[in-house]
Amino acid sequence: MLDAARGLLACPTCGQGLDADARPVRCRAGHSFDVAKQGYLNLLGAPPPAHADTSAMLDARARVLASGAFDAVDALVARRARGVRTVLDAGGGTGHHLARLLDAVPTARGVTLDVSVAAARRAARAHERAASIVADTWGTLPLLPGRFDLVTCLFAPRNMAEFARVLGDGGLLLVVTPDADHLASVRQRYGLLGIEPDKDDRLLRTASGLFEPVGRQSVRTPLAASAELVGDLIAMGPNAFHTAPADVVGLETELAVTVWLFRRR
Ligand SMILES: C[S@@+](CC[C@H](N)C(=O)[O-])C[C@H]1O[C@@H](n2cnc3c(N)ncnc32)[C@H](O)[C@@H]1O
Ligand SMILES: [Zn+2]
Fold first, then answer.
1. Lining residues, ligand 1, CB within 6 Å
2. Along the 265 residues of the chain, how does pLDDT read in single tens digits?
3. What is the DSSP string of the chain?
4. I want to staple 261 with a disulfide (CB 3.0 to 4.6 A). Which of 20, 155, 201, 215 is the partner?
5. Domain count, the chain
6. Residue range(s) defining the domain that contains residue 74
């Protein structure tokens, strides 16, 4: 619900605070933004880019998340989020991960931000303490400075300077990245895109100066994936833009991710 974003949103035109309770939502300078009937707020100010996740990708991702495959990751994220009051989930997709965090942390409210309208539409109904906005992580985030206790970014693009700007003093950034062998048997069998080898270095390099690394934990969970789940694991990723394999079978695979925790300097 959009009121979860009260006091957190900034006007993408002038940067002043947006009144999340007004309809249309507006800033003091009179810039106004309609709330979509599905409940999300589009602050992108441009058509979504061609690479934004599609409805079909989001449906597949929602089924994978509903299967419980990522529950161990959500449990760890929730432990790290204890006591926070305001959370931004950047590239939040369906809103599933923010919703699980909010279930575990009853004092928290949050904003899920995604450049995909299909994602924002789903995320708008993910949790009553979650607001859903359409925005581009690579731009200036339409969020007021210093208002968040925690930014989470799971398998999504990271704009470290903007994450630091919206966090308050001592605010936490939690990043989840896939390890080199994440879902390896599925990726090998279906020739899916690989995971870049230098991505950990890149994360640490882009964080340095803005954030201090304070924790790193790996999560490994065996996954006996049915043919349907394998099909969804393929369809939810960027590979869905290439050819879909015809012969999907069930596979033993492994979820292998790293959960990184940084503190704003
Ligand atoms: C791999 S999905 C992960 C989604 C979600 N965090 C999860 O783990 O279920 C990446 C997400 O980032 C979003 N995304 C990609 N580029 C983005 C951008 N420039 N700004 C905001 N979101 C973006 C996509 O639309 C997609 O929902
Ligand atoms: Zn304005």
1. 52-53, 61, 91-93, 96-97, 114-116, 119, 136-138, 154-157
2. 999 999 999 999 999 999 999 999 999 999 999 999 999 999 998 888 887 888 999 999 999 999 999 999 999 999 999 999 999 999 999 999 999 999 999 999 999 999 999 999 999 999 999 999 999 999 999 999 999 999 999 999 999 999 999 999 999 999 999 999 999 999 888 877 777 778 899 999 999 999 999 999 999 999 999 999 999 999 998 775 556 677 888 999 999 999 999 999 9
3. -GGGGTTTBB-TTT-PBEETTSSSEEETT--EEPBPTTS-EE---SPPPTTSPPHHHHHHHHHHHHTTTTHHHHHHHHHHTTT--EEEEET-TTSHHHHHHHHH-TT-EEEEEES-HHHHHHHTTS-TTEEEEE--TTS--SB-TT-EEEEEEESS---HHHHHHHEEEEEEEEEEEE-TTTTHHHHHHHT-----TTHHHHHHHHHTTTEEEEEEEEEEEEEEE-HHHHHHHHHTSGGGGSPPPS----EEEEEEEEEEEEEE-
4. 215
5. 1
6. 38-264
State in Å: Cα 29 to ligand 2 middle.
Answer: 5
Q: Is the pTM of this model over 0.70?
A: yes
State the CATH number of the domain containing residue 188: 3.40.50.150
Ligand 2 is an ion; residues with CB less than 5 A from it? 11, 13-14, 27, 29, 31
Atom of ligand 1 nearest to the CA of 138: 19
